[in-house]
Design a protein that fits this description.
The complex is a heterodimer of chains A (475) and B (196).
Chain A (H helix, E strand, L loop, with lengths): L4 H7 L2 E4 L9 E4 L2 E4 L5 H9 L10 E4 L16 H17 L2 E3 L9 H7 L8 E4 L13 E4 L2 H10 L1 E4 L3 E8 L10 H12 L7 E6 L1 H4 L3 H9 L8 E3 L4 H7 L8 H14 L10 E6 L6 E3 L7 E3 L7 H5 L3 H14 L14 E4 L7 H11 L9 E4 L4 H9 L2 H8 L2 E2 L20 E4 L14 E4 L2 H10 L10
Parallel strand pairs in A: 3-4, 3-6, 4-5, 6-7, 9-10, 9-12, 10-11, 15-16, 15-18, 16-17, 18-19
Antiparallel strand pairs in A: 1-2, 2-8, 13-14
Helix pairs in contact in A: 2-5, 6-8, 13-15, 13-16
Chain B lengths: L5 E4 L1 E3 L7 H4 L19 H4 L22 E3 L12 H9 L3 E4 L4 H8 L4 E4 L2 H10 L5 E4 L4 E4 L2 E4 L4 H9 L3 H6 L2 H16 L1
Parallel strand pairs in B: 2-3, 3-4, 4-5
Antiparallel strand pairs in B: 1-6, 6-7, 7-8
């Protein structure tokens, strides 16, 4: 019988099988790469110390500081005392347990899901875990990558393994492509997908994305797609590796190189693919031929419409589901929006281009191309937070920082920043933001703040006009 | 870890779908390096006004429900961020059992590491509990995998592994470390494979 890509990765990582695994009992799965950061690791290390336990394989764990680092001048001391303690604690723990740390001032520092791939830590066929739900990003390489809680971080540190109930496999196949369709990006693909399957559509599943719509994407774009798998409730997202993947990996510092890499690629090519579409537990087809830029209007990532549409009526969104209708009404109230109003009539106060979803070089290049010769509306405060120091340097070499700054954007240091507002980058109450991040939950970017999820080019266009525009009209 | 076997209590009805972990514990409370002390911040933005006074219309602030240890809620509870702080906050507040038609995966797993039982019941049975939770006791029996309320009994599924962990209050890491030889075998098999 055929196996899915996910089955193959799973099978090759089973260390121990609880009896009755088919009935939902977990298997002990080996972890190839463990990424940690300052916010969800302190209690894990404290637990290890309390029990006198060691880190089993320190060289398989990598740490960085991203969630609460300031994005302003880093030669100054970190003002927030609690953040400073968390960063200090991570530094001490990494030293004590022999773990490689990309500290705040390291040239490799960045958002954990941006630096993993760019350093070549994430490779096809691997299992990757991190105490962060957007670990699903790494699935773009054909790795089984999932977010875990702090108790599981401790478990992985101590054992290099994790008990996991084997998820089901959900296939989402895309016909059509967004290539040569200016104004449309990978963010629109994943937002429209979540709109379609709902925020719990992927619960208990690994989503494998495939089809022409995926194979024609770059790695940066594929990462945007897999990143938001968790917003559809999925355990992980997966894309089978191909030449685009292998080209990306060549030359990355922690990846194998030379003949060793080429031999490994041969193995990946022969092994890492789903045998037949029928191996999946469930399949969904999505047609990209009519995809237009997407904008979220509500307080979860399925509350999304086309930029050409109006704010929906709750009944229309709910389609007969009483609970959904209640939730849509509450969302509209929180967002201070009226049904029937065109999306392009919504004025915004802030623009955030950043996050593990959309702060890679291509994202910044896309947005900057649109900003050449244009300026940010006087009503808008706009910022760019590169995903990593490497992204920042690469952008500066290309003069992209100049374009952003000339247009009136703030050009910041790398980190999670206003995606979740754990550092000083937050929305004030009632401020409305066009954001390239992944969550529009109540208060996510700041208490009382209102988030609209969009692609980097849609965010750049909104910054210029002070409201949402159909960016396709600009090409 | 504290064990859990059985509870008889009334429920706090949180009548909402898709309650995400950003609501359960907002980000400003993720900056501690301890596992305790999160209870007062549970649902912070829904429980308190900007000046720190209680919002009386939120269900957790309703005196009728104070001290109850069962939280009854709707689909996809605990979605979003993996922050285990959400579970620590519920636990510190005094919640021991959650009942909903579905839970987000990471949150669901996090519960078992902290002595909290997430019970998944069919939608109509959750509806029944919502109708009766105001004044009626709910019995949750983990061993029998049953929820009983007003002479109605509903079965729920849970895997044997999670059940055993919770019933016996086991230390999962301790348990895994007993499988040391299996881990060593796996690692050596992998080493041989990659050098071949």
């Amino acid at each position: 019988m055929g196996r899915t890509l996910f089955d193959k990765i799973w099978d090759s990582h089973v260390v121990f099988q609880e009896k009755d695994a088919a009935n939902g009992n977990p298997s002990l799965i080996y972890v190839d790469c463990h990424l940690i950061h300052e916010v969800t690791s302190p209690q894990a290390f404290a637990g290890l110390k309390q029990h006198g336990r060691k880190v089993r394989r320190p060289h398989l764990t990598f740490a960085t500081m991203d969630h609460n680092v300031p994005t302003t001048n880093r030669s100054l001391p970190v003002i927030d005392g609690d953040s400073s303690i968390q960063m200090h604690t991570l530094r001490e723990n990494c030293t004590e347990f022999g773990i490689t740390l990309f500290d705040m001032l390291s040239p490799q520092q960045g958002i954990v899901h941006v630096i993993g791939p760019e350093l070549g830590l994430t490779l096809p066929g691997m299992t990757v875990v991190c105490g962060d739900s957007h670990t699903s990003t790494h699935g773009a390489f054909g790795a089984f990558a999932l977010g875990i809680g702090t108790s599981d971080v401790e478990h992985v540190l101590a054992t290099q393994c994790l008990w996991i109930n084997k998820p089901k496999s959900l296939s989402i196949k895309f016909t059509g492509t967004i290539n040569n369709r200016p104004g449309i990006s990978a963010k629109d693909i994943i937002l429209s997908t979540i709109r379609h399957i709902g925020i719990s559509g992927g619960i208990g599943s690994v989503i494998e994305y495939s089809g022409e719509g995926i194979s024609t994407l770059s790695m940066d774009q594929r990462m945007t797609i897999c990143n938001m798998s968790i917003e559809g409730g999925a355990r992980a997202g997966l894309i089978a590796p191909d030449d685009v993947t292998f080209d990306y990996i060549r030359g990355r510092p922690f990846a194998p190189s030379g003949e060793e890499l080429e031999k490994t690629i041969e193995y990946w090519e022969s092994f890492l693919a789903t045998d037949s579409e029928t191996c999946h537990d469930k399949s969904v087809n999505m047609d990209l031929s009519r995809l237009v830029p997407q904008v979220s209007w509500g307080t979860n990532p399925s509350m999304v419409v086309d930029v050409t549409e109006n704010i929906p009526y709750p009944e229309e969104f709910a389609d007969g589901n009483v609970e959904q209708e209640k939730s849509a009404k509450r969302a509209l109230e929180y967002m201070d929006l009226k049904p029937g109003v065109p999306i392009t009539e919504i004025d915004i106060d802030r623009v955030f281009i950043g996050s593990c979803t959309n702060a890679r070089l291509e994202d910044l290049m896309d947005a900057s191309k649109l900003l050449e010769g244009r300026t940010v509306s006087s009503r808008v405060n706009a910022m760019v937070v590169p995903g990593s120091q490497s992204v920042k340097r690469a952008a500066e070499v290309r003069g992209i920082d100049r374009i952003f700054k000339d247009a009136g954007f703030d050009w910041r240091e790398s980190g999670c920043s206003m995606c979740l507002g754990m550092n000083p980058d937050v929305l004030a109450p009632k401020q409305r933001c066009a954001s390239t991040s992944n969550r529009n939950f109540e208060g996510r970017q700041g208490v009382g703040g209102r988030t609209h999820l969009v692609s980097p080019i849609m965010a750049a266009a909104a910054a210029v006009e002070g409201r949402f525009v159909d960016v396709r009209e600009w090409f | 870890m504290k064990s859990f076997k059985f509870i008889c209590d009334k429920a706090i009805p949180l009548d909402m779908i898709n309650v995400d972990t950003d609501q359960i514990i907002p980000k400003q409370f993720l900056k501690m390096v301890k596992k305790e002390g999160y209870g007062e911040f549970l649902f912070y933005n829904w429980r308190y006004q900007n000046d720190g006074t209680l919002l009386t219309d939120f269900v957790l602030n309703d005196k009728r429900y104070s001290g109850r240890r069962i939280l009854l809620t709707r689909d996809n509870f605990g979605s979003g961020s993996s922050r285990e702080h959400a579970v620590w906050a519920l636990r510190d507040f005094g919640i021991t059992v959650l009942i909903a038609p579905s839970f987000a995966d990471i949150f669901y797993n996090n519960c078992f590491k902290n002595g909290i039982l997430p019970v998944q019941l069919e939608r109509q049975n959750v509806e029944f509990l919502f109708k009766n939770s105001e004044n009626e006791d709910i019995v949750v029996d983990l061993d029998k995998q049953k929820v009983v309320c007003c002479d109605h009994s509903f079965s729920f599924l849970i895997n044997e592994f999670h059940k055993r962990m919770l019933m016996q209050g086991l230390d999962e890491i301790g348990l895994t470390l007993e499988l040391e030889s299996a881990i060593v075998d796996y690692e050596s098999k992998r080493r041989n494979h990659s050098s071949a």
